[in-house]
Structure formats: C-alpha cells, structure tokens
Amino acid sequence: MKKVQLSALNIRYLILAVTSRCNLCCRYCYQEAGRDGEDMTDEVLDNALSLIAGQNAPCHVQITGGEPTLLPAKIARIGERCHAMTHRPTLAIQTNGTLLNSELVQLFKNNEIQVGISLDGPPDIQEDIRGKATETLRGLKLLEKHNIPFRVTTVVTNRNILHLDKLALLLASFAGSRGIGLDLLVDKGRTTSEKIRPASPKEMQQGMKQLVTTLALVNSRRRIPIRLRELDLLGRRSSTSHAFCRAATGQSLAVHPDGTLYPCGQTMADPFFSMGTVMKPDFPENLPLTAIHLTSHRCRTCPLNGRCPGECPSRTHYTLDRSDPLVCSLYKALVE
C-alpha cells in the first residue's frame, strides 16, 4: 500500500494527550482513563512537536489527556517549545477544571493558552456523570477572578439532555463564559458497560429547544454572548463545500502518551486507526476518517439539505445506527 510522506502532510490541528491518567471517573469515559495511566515522556513530546515545527502554515495545538493539569511541567514545556517555533501555533487546553490553581492560571496566561472546560450540566448532573462538581465550579470561579475566558464542552447523553438549559443559566453567571460545544455520546470505552446512553430523538428535540430559548434570554442581557457551536456550524457551513473538521481532511493528528499516532482524539487508543508513532510515522495514502461522511436515507428530502454542516467522521464511525443519525435530530431541533 502506498504511504504518505510526513513532508507531504499539512497538519493544522495537533492533539497532545500528555497523560492517560485522570482524577475523575466519568461514567462514559472513552479512553477509560484512571489513576494508573501513562504520562507522555519529554522525548515523545518533543518528537510530536517536531512534526509541526517546520510547517509554514498556521497550526493549533490542543493539550488534553486524561487530565492534563496533572502535569503542569508538560504544559510549560509545550508552551516553551511552541514559543520558539518560527510559525508559533495557537494553544488550547481541555480540562475538567478540578485542579486549577493560581500557578496553572498564570501558566495559561504566560503562554496564551485558551481554556476549555468539560462540563456536562448543573452541579447535580455534573456530580452524577463526572464527579467533583464543587471543584470544577471552584476552577471556573478562579478563571473568572483572573479574567480568563473559557468555553465548555458538553457530552450529550440521556442523563443531561433535558438539563442543558440549566447549564446555560449556570454559565450566565460567568462573564468569561464564551461558548458551549456539544459532543454526542458514542459507543466506545466505558459507555458500553454503563447504563448511560445516547439521548433519544424526542429528548434531543425538547432539550435543544430549551437550551436555545434559554441562551437567547441569557445573551439578551450579556455584552459578550455565549455561543452555541452547533448553531454557528449551521450558520456558516455547507455539506457540499466544507469538511466538518480537520480530521475529515487529513489535517489532524493526535498523539497518545506512548507516542502512537491517530487521526483525532476520539479515535485515540483504537488500534484500527493507529498510524505508527512519533518516531516512525506510518501514514496510509488514504488517511483515516477522510472517507467517512454523514449519510441518511432522509438527506434528499431534509429541509437542511445544502445547509447541513455534516457530522464528526469519528463519531459517525462509532455510531451504531447510521441510517438515522441522532445529529440530524439535533440540527433540525436547532432550526425549528
């Protein structure tokens, strides 16, 4: 099989999972992270960053895990290495927020690291699904105190779909809250053994209506609105002319703590998607995920035909029922 040379790749989105350890035990964890996971070595980290060091195009580096704030020194090293690059990439971190302190906040500021918080709902829902809700809220208050804006990523399940409006009300109390991104639950990792499941189409319709209505009310009283990523996608994308994400065009690369390469964070640790290591990349000619697209028997008659932003290719891969994707219900609910 013909292979693609590293020099021919245009990596625009690099995901660094600096550890597979985590201080939480989320009920649907895709990576099944735990306290006995693995940390990325400096050698692996430096080799991973070397994959983008010589590029002339802009790149974004996403720091994730596990829980990346368990390793402040790794975050600092990433900041230092990226700062020294000719074309300095933008940096962001995805964290559960439970371990944030003044030192980490200053580290984010010094290295201009954008902050994403994993938050699945109001405190009672967060406690049930992820745990340590009080610590996460304390982290949000610390970001607010230091004027650091943040966005929230929410995994949508049957447990929180009808409480997303309360999440919007919670975020309304933070001036630094900038947006919500929704990730639909997929059949991977701990999900397969937990009772937690994807929302139903009916739940999706009701939950999205409540969320959009509440966000509109909240934003009518804010100077800087809280954006809903999925509404923005509907507003600017067309399935006929745009790929859903960088992974869909082969421009994304995720690095596991052990150095193994994958096309995106959601496929990480799945041997099916392995593409070699940072020391010995092995890229197939047809990069994974580039041929996976949202398809439904209802596409031709859908009122969003030509306007639909499509779907995350890895999410499509892990979805059991591809004939009637749940994301279709999400988009339709947003425009009704």
Characterization of the model:
Helix 1 (42-53) runs parallel beside helix 2 (72-83), helix 6 runs parallel beside helix 7 and helix 7 (201-219) packs parallel to helix 10. The protein has helices at residues 42-53, 72-83, 102-110, 123-129, 133-145, 164-171, 201-219, 229-236, 313-318, 326-335; strands at residues 3-4, 13-17, 60-64, 90-95, 113-118, 150-156, 177-184, 227-228, 252-255, 261-262, 283-284. The model has no long low-confidence stretch (mean pLDDT 89). The protein has one domain (3-335): Aldolase class I (TIM Barrel, Alpha-Beta Barrel), CATH 3.20.20. A nine-stranded mixed beta sheet has the order 8-7-6-5-4-3-2-9-10. Strands 1-11 form a two-stranded antiparallel sheet. It is of the alpha/beta class.
Notable features of this structure?
15% strand, globular, alpha/beta, 11 strands, two-stranded antiparallel ribbon, TIM Barrel
The end-to-end span amounts to 47 Å
- Helix run count: 10
Structural class: alpha/beta
Briefly, what CATH class? Alpha Beta
* The CATH homology group name: Aldolase class I
Radius of gyration: 19 Å
Query: What is the CATH T-level topology?
Result: TIM Barrel
Report the order of strands and helices.
EEHEHEHEHHEHEHEHEEEHH
CATH architecture tag: Alpha-Beta Barrel
Q: Give the domain tally.
A: 1
Portion in strands? 5-15%
Tally the beta strands: 11
Shape: globular
Overall pLDDT level: 89
The low-confidence parts are: none
